[in-house]
Design a protein that fits this description.
The protein has about 525 residues and is mostly beta strands. The chain has three domains: about 120 residues, Carboxypeptidase-like, regulatory domain (Immunoglobulin-like), CATH 2.60.40; about 220 residues, no CATH class; about 150 residues, no CATH class. It contains five helices and 42 strands. Strands 13-15-18-21-23-26-29-32-35-33-30-27-24-22-19-16 form a 16-stranded parallel beta barrel. Strands 1, 4, 7, 8, 9 and 10 form a six-stranded mixed beta sheet that branches. A four-stranded antiparallel beta sheet has the order 3-2-5-6, with no helix packed on it. It is elongated and about 80 Å long. The N and C termini lie far apart (about 85 Å).
């Protein structure tokens, strides 16, 4: 054997090892992108006192996309005719998370964000006195990326790959030509505003105190309305809102709007009110993302359709009062936490329709008080902690083709209310709870062709009658064909009341459940064919 060869073998092996290590580390090194652009402070008010000295000091923050609620995504995919399709535009709020990168503009408005992991982000530009603007679903590739805008449209282009992420080549050319993102002076709102008023696209409006609009109002898409904690806005005249489904107005609390760090809490503004003197153009109110309010959006206008509303993080959500012929359709309502009022509340109304709604994670879903001919149809209720539907005090109501998922009480009926429940899928601890409400002792229901999957009672009645009263609960499927389980465990009525109970002599309600179904009612639950 050649001795010299043996001497050089370790050196050769070491050299190969070093080459492999450094070669692998270089090839696996993380790739990054850079995002550059310019922010222009555009004083379009006509007041020269607001002209900026320069464009410095604008905060530019890059955020990961908001995590879309998996239940909403599932329901959007399974039932595309229900609710609003969730997106960054409906869900993103910069105050609810920390940014990935933050910088500030130079005097000429330019900015640069470096060492960004390629992916999709939301970009936020903000400056006190100049408002906040969101750019959604910003795609950042490896290398140099530039952001530019034309009117209300924004795009990112990658100069290394010569790739464009705009909606069309022509549109991208126009955006690159303009080369800037525009911010406009904040318009402060307070007192009485008597002249016609437009909430303009990509502009911010701040209610520093209570404000009342007595002239006509136009809500343009992509306008931002921020309301100080505890303050409210009223409308008394004609109101126009966007008509294209994905063009939203944002209405929310002004708390911490210029912060680029995650807020532990956001205080609520008081309410947003459309009075009985107001009107809606085309009898429609559309396309609002609404959050962080105490008493929510209050409407007292007859003969209207309310659609494409996304309401969340409120004490009360949408309230309809003292009116008639109102339709609420294709809305998402979530995370309202009043234990008495609903995510949607209807009070002293007649001939109303709630349809194609998704109501999730509220304490109370829909509350109806003293309403005549209230109809709840083709709605999905999910994870509401107290009651999905709360009917009390002299209601007449129909609940049809609804699905209740993970409910505590699906339908709560009391106070001389009469509720008819047809063709529903009810997965709850208690499906229908029928009982006395203070001195309003009787309550009535009919329930047919429903599927009950309930852990405590399918139906419980504790309403007061002084003579025998029979409830029609026939042709339902109870999750079993064992009659002793149905009558003994899933139904609570007169036969289950302890004779020693102080109200035993008054509790004469009896649930008639025979004949019952021996398999699932296939036509119960959400109907996919129902369009918006």
């Amino acid at each position: 054997m050649n001795i010299n060869k043996l001497k050089f073998c370790p050196l050769i092996l070491l050299t190969i090892f070093v080459m492999l290590v450094f070669g692998c580390s270089k090839s696996t090194e993380g790739k990054s992108g850079k995002l550059s652009g310019t922010v222009i402070l555009n004083n379009d008010t006509g007041n020269p006192a607001l002209d900026p000295v320069d464009y410095a000091g604008v905060t530019v923050a890059l955020y990961k996309p908001a995590e879309l609620d998996t239940t909403f995504v599932r329901l959007n995919n399974t039932y595309p005719n229900l609710g609003v399709q969730v997106s960054q535009e409906t869900e993103f709020d910069h105050r609810l998370q920390n940014p990935v990168k933050v910088t500030h503009t130079a005097g000429d408005g330019s900015f640069s964000l470096n060492n960004i992991k390629p992916g999709t982000y939301n970009l936020v530009v903000m400056k006190e006195g100049w408002g906040v603007r969101y750019l959604y679903d910003v795609d950042i590739a490896e290398g140099d990326n530039t952001v530019s805008s034309k009117n209300s449209e924004d795009t990112i282009s990658n100069t290394d790959n010569k790739a464009s992420y705009s909606k069309s080549v022509k549109e991208n050319y126009l955006m690159q030509k303009s080369g800037s993102i525009e911010l406009y002076p904040v318009t402060q709102l307070a007192g009485y505003i008597n002249n016609p008023f437009e909430f303009k696209s990509n502009h911010s409006y701040l209610a520093i105190n209570d404000a009342s609009f007595t002239g006509e109002v136009i809500f343009s898409p992509n306008s931002y309305i921020w309301i100080n904690s505890g303050k409210k806005i009223y409308f008394y005249n004609l109101v126009s809102s966007p008509t294209i489904d994905n063009d939203f107005i944002k209405i929310t609390s002004a708390d911490k709007i210029y912060s680029s760090t995650r807020a532990d809490s956001i205080s609520r503004f008081y309410s947003f009110n459309f009075t009985e003197q107001a009107q809606f153009s085309g009898n429609r109110l559309n396309n609002i993302v609404f959050s962080h309010s105490t008493f929510g959006m209050v409407i007292k206008i007859a003969g209207i359709t309310i659609s494409n509303i996304v309401c969340s993080h409120c004490l009360q959500g949408l309230t309809i009062e003292q009116t008639n012929n109102v339709t609420i359709t294709n809305c998402n309502v979530s995370q309202t936490d009043d234990p008495e009022q609903g995510g949607i509340t209807l009070s002293d109304c007649s001939n109303t329709l709630c349809s194609n709604l998704i109501i999730k994670d509220c304490k109370v879903g829909i509350r109806q008080h003293s309403c005549d001919n209230g109809n709840i149809d083709n709605c999905y209720f999910c994870n509401n902690s107290l009651k999905d539907i709360y009917n009390l005090y002299d209601n007449t109501s129909n609940v049809t083709h609804c699905t209740f998922e993970n409910s505590n009480v699906a339908i709560d009926n009391s106070g001389r209310s009469t509720t008819i429940v047809y063709y529903c899928n009810i997965n709850a601890q208690i499906g229908i709870n029928n009982y006395a409400q203070t001195n309003w002792v009787a309550a009535f229901f009919t329930a047919n062709y429903n599927n009950f999957n309930c852990s405590i009672y399918g139906i419980r009645t504790f309403a007061v009658f002084y003579s025998e009263y029979h409830f029609n609960a026939t042709y339902n499927y109870w999750g079993t064909t064992n009659e002793s389980i149905i009558s003994g465990a899933l139904i609570y009525d007169r036969y289950d009341v302890d004779p020693s109970h102080q109200d035993y002599y008054r509790l004469w309600g009896i649930i008639d459940y025979i004949p019952y179904m021996h398999s699932l009612v296939q036509t119960a639950g959400i109907i996919l064919e129902r369009s918006k």
